[in-house]
Structures are given as C-alpha cells and as structure tokens.
Amino acid sequence: MRSVLEGFKNFIMRGNVVELAVAIVIGAAFTALINSIVTGMFTPLIAAILGSADLSQAGMFEINGAIFMPGLVLDGLIKFLVIAAAVYFVIVLPLNKLAERRNRGVEPEVAAIATDTLLLQEIRDLLAAQQGSGPRH
C-alpha cells in the first residue's frame, strides 16, 4: 500500500501534471473574468443598440409554440470571440514574440533536461554498471 501511495505522490508531483492543473485553474479564472466583462459591459450595450433590455431577448420570435432566441446565439458568439481575442493577445502573441526573440538569439535558449530524461539516464547507467560495463553516451 505504501508503494502505491508513493507512486501516486510521484505522479502528482511531476512537473507537467502540476503545470496542467495550474493551467486549468488559471484558464477557468480567466474565462470567468472575460465572461463577467462581456456580460456586464458588451452584451448590455449591444442589447440597448438592438432595442432590448437583455441580449438573450433580442430578436426573439415564436413559430408554432417554439421560441427562437437568436440573441442567445449572438451572446455566445460575442463571449467566444472576446475570450479568443483575449487569449491571443494576452498569451499567444507574447509567447510567439518570445520564441521569435529566442530564434534570433536575443534570448538565450533554456537548456534544461526533463526530469524524466535524467531519471532514464540514471537507470541506464545503473543497469550498465550492474552488467560490468561503464555508462554509454
């Protein structure tokens, strides 16, 4: 049982799992922030321009008892476009600029070997030492 818990701990503490968890949490918070900006500022403005109190009610019509709400689709589209633009300008564009600077030699390339690779190299060296030969490179 101890080895299972230790294995789970090692799995959770691996860099990419922790980074992924942080990315999900930050992404959720970022999405909530953008949604509140869109809901509080953009959609009321567009609804007022379209002559409706609420964007979800804009352009609403009924056919044979079925209610169609194109304003809801417009609201979802606006939220998607604003979130996509914010992600592009806040995350993607700066990272692309950083990569471009690294390719030009302005920023030094990060020379780090992944912990998985180091662990595999240590295992290889230990196996080679057990077989009586030195480590291979």
UniProtKB/TrEMBL annotation:
Residues that span the membrane, as ranges: 20-47, 67-95
Any one GO CC term of the record: plasma membrane
Location of this chain's protein in the cell: Cell membrane; Membrane
Membrane topology: Multi-pass membrane protein
GO molecular function: mechanosensitive monoatomic ion channel activity
Keyword terms, alphabetized: Cell membrane, Ion channel, Ion transport, Membrane, Transmembrane, Transmembrane helix, Transport
InterPro entries for this protein: MS_channel (IPR001185), MSC/AndL (IPR037673), MscL_channel (IPR036019)
Any one Pfam family match given in the protein's UniProt record, by short name: MscL
Superkingdom of this protein's organism: Bacteria
Assembly and oligomerization: Homopentamer.
Record family assignment: Belongs to the MscL family.
HAMAP family in UniProt: MscL
UniProt function note: Channel that opens in response to stretch forces in the membrane lipid bilayer. May participate in the regulation of osmotic pressure changes within the cell.
Protein name: Large-conductance mechanosensitive channel
Organism: Pengzhenrongella frigida
Gene name as annotated: mscL
